[in-house]
Amino acid sequence: MAVDSWAISPRPTMPGLTPQPLPTHFNMDRDDCRRNETLGKNLMCRIKCVFTSSSAPESRLSLEDTQQWSQSLERLLGSKYGLATFRTFLKSEFSDENIEFWLTCEDYKKITSSYKMSSKARKIFEQFVEAESPKEINIDYQTREEIKRKVRSPTPQCFDEAQKIVYGLMERDSYPRFLRSEMYKTLLESLATDNAQT
Question: If one looks up domain 96-172 in CATH, what number appears?
Fold first, then answer.
């Protein structure tokens, strides 16, 4: 039986198209870790500059305040520096829709004009609640539909259920990630170093 010569000869290769092993420096986990560490250090520098350069000592960011952020999400969000740092962390992870929704709802509850409330309720629904919205939050269908109904005649409480769900998601997911993040660790280390030097 004759064998075609093309069947046993090596395939020609085109220059530049031969598979190359990945460079030894290419490691996504390590690269992500370095990026997060660098991000943490850069952010920490910006945060320290803003929060510790205040002229009033009582309004400065302190190590004790920063350590207290780890006690609860409520404590973190109750601190203006904690809230700013947490928001920045979530933005760095492209997952800031929950905190933005929660804060928007807090502002919404302060509206007293029924016209403004109606307009703002529609905007919140379109931006965060409606399916496929730009910053869609992760809530169940039933809650989404209930809000859709309530927005037609809005009250200060029409987003309360979604706000509770979003708070729970942040408490179980985003908040623990923040506490484990290089950003938070680096900020604590830097403030501890500053304390030791003073």
Answer: 1.10.167.10
3-state per-residue secondary structure call for the chain: CCCCHHHHCCCCCCCCCCCCCCCCCCCHHHHHHHHHHHHHHHHHHHHHHHHHCCCCHHHCCCHHHHHHHHHCHHHHHHCHHHHHHHHHHHHHCCCCHHHHHHHHHHHHCCCCCHHHHHHHHHHHHHHHHCCCCCCCCCCCHHHHHHHHHHHCCCCCCCCHHHHHHHHHHHHHHHHHHHHHCHHHHHHHHHHHHHHHHC
The 10s digit of each residue's pLDDT in 137-188 is 999 999 999 999 999 999 999 999 999 999 999 999 999 999 999 999 999 9
Summarised one tens digit per residue, pLDDT across range 107-123 is 999 999 999 999 999 99
